[in-house]
Every structure is written in structure tokens, then in C-alpha cells.
């Protein structure tokens, strides 16, 4: 996995008034935790968003380049929590947890589907991608950026389950091995057409009703003629 890196800075202050001030300048308050200790940090929102794009997720392990005056130190950390503004959706706070590269961790990584199923190309089926992230367990140094899976051989009705995914050495999946990652289903139009045909077949024409309707219509026409005469 390519190492992710982001530059952060030790915070000069704490409290609501201080963090409100740095947010106005495009900075996000953060905390780095380690064994009961907490280090207040701040980082650029644009740098954090760029990091998410690189990781394809908000679940990631990264190197934090921590600046403090003229000093600089690098620490490996897992992103533990991202807090968003409930109205604007913007990021307002993040928490990191310092870890060692040999530490075994649990983390979610993206599942990326590759290829076009034969059931889609030849039979008009629809590929339904259900599992977009998978939780894994491995050493921090072995966390893959994503898990890829080929779907080219899938026909309509076929599925790929969690147990079918291939993981790098030293990485194992957590969860129900029978969980469906992706499958190919029949096109919806055919189902609807069949239902409509079925409904029509289930409702035979009632000749008596049409006759009564015709008679009623004739009576109404007759009454109209009577009024105009």
C-alpha cells in the first residue's frame, strides 16, 4: 500500500473560541490519542479532503508530519473518527489514534468491482454492487488501499460472496463469509411485463357487465334526446 501522509500542526490553543477562529481560516481541529494522552492538532481542510481521495475512504492509516515551531516529528496513526456539521456536511473535527506499524488493527477498506459481467453484456442483466467496504484485520503496515474483484464471469443469478474475495497475505476479512458483494439480476422491465401479462390473464372479460354498461349508456342517450325534443 502506498503510504499516505499529511502535514499537521500542534495547536497553540484549545476551547470553543479558539477552534471557531481556526475554522474560519480553513483549518480543522484534531486530536491525536495514545495510551490516555491527547495531543491537540490542527490541519488544513483541503489537505484532509485530498487525503480521503487518495485513500478512497475516510477509513485510513497515515503518517502525520507534526510541526511544532521549528521541530518536526512523524507518527503513524489510524483515523478513528470524523465529525461533520449536521447542516452543512463540512468536516468540523477529527480524531487520530497513534499506532505502530507492527500493531494488528481492524479497519474498513473499499471494495472495487472490475470488469463487465457476461450476464450484463449478453443477456441485459443488471450488476448490483451491494458491499462497498469490507472490514479487515492485519498489521498497520499491511493495510491495502482497496480490495479489487473481477465480475466478468457472472451470469444472471450469479453472485460473488465475501468468501470469494482475494486478500493480500497477512490480511483477513471480518464478517459473514456468505455476505453478497455483488450479483447480477434480471432486467426489471421483463419482470414488470410478465406481471402485467399475468394480471391481464387473471381478469377475464365480463360480457354481462359490458352489456349492462351499454344499456345504461343507451338510457342516458335516450334521456338526453328527450330533453332536447
Describe this protein's structure:
By secondary structure, this protein is α+β, with helices and mostly antiparallel strands. It is built from five helices and 13 strands. It has helices at 16-24, 45-55, 118-121, 188-201, 207-228, and strands at residues 5-10, 27-34, 37-44, 61-68, 71-84, 91-98, 104-114, 126-129, 133-139, 147-150, 159-161, 172-174, 180-185. The strands form three sheets. A six-stranded mixed β-barrel has the order 1-3-2-6-5-4. The chain is elongated and about 60 Å long. The termini are far apart.
Chain-wise SSE layout:
Elements: E1 5-10, H1 16-24, E2 27-34, E3 37-44, H2 45-55, E4 61-68, E5 71-84, E6 91-98, E7 104-114, H3 118-121, E8 126-129, E9 133-139, E10 147-150, E11 159-161, E12 172-174, E13 180-185, H4 188-201, H5 207-228
Parallel strand pairs: 1-4, 2-6, 7-10
Antiparallel strand pairs: 1-3, 2-3, 4-5, 5-6, 7-9, 8-13, 9-12, 11-13
Amino acid at each position: 500500500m502506498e503510504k499516505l501522509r499529511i502535514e499537521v500542526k500542534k495547536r497553540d490553543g484549545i476551547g470553543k473560541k479558539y477552534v471557531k477562529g481556526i475554522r474560519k481560516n480553513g483549518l480543522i481541529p484534531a486530536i491525536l490519542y495514545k495510551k490516555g494522552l491527547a495531543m491537540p492538532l490542527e490541519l488544513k481542510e483541503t489537505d484532509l479532503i485530498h487525503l480521503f481521495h487518495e485513500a478512497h475512504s475516510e477509513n485510513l492509516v497515515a503518517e502525520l508530519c507534526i510541526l511544532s515551531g521549528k521541530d518536526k516529528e512523524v507518527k503513524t496513526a489510524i483515523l478513528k473518527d470524523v465529525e461533520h456539521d449536521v447542516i452543512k456536511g463540512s468536516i468540523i473535527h477529527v480524531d487520530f489514534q497513534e499506532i505502530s506499524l507492527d500493531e494488528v488493527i481492524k479497519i474498513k477498506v473499499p471494495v472495487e468491482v472490475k470488469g463487465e459481467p457476461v450476464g450484463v453484456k449478453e443477456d441485459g442483466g443488471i450488476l448490483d454492487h451491494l458491499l462497498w467496504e469490507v472490514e479487515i484485520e492485519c498489521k498497520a503496515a499491511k493495510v491495502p488501499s482497496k480490495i479489487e474483484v473481477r465480475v466478468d464471469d457472472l451470469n444472471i443469478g450469479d453472485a460473488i460472496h465475501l468468501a470469494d474475495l482475494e486478500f493480500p497475505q497477512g490480511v483477513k476479512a471480518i464478517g459473514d463469509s456468505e455476505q453478497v458483494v455483488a450479483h447480477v439480476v434480471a432486467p426489471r422491465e421483463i419482470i414488470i411485463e410478465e406481471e402485467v401479462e399475468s394480471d391481464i390473464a387473471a381478469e377475464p372479460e365480463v360480457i354481462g357487465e359490458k352489456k349492462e354498461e351499454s344499456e345504461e349508456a343507451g338510457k342516458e342517450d335516450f334521456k338526453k334526446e328527450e330533453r332536447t325534443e
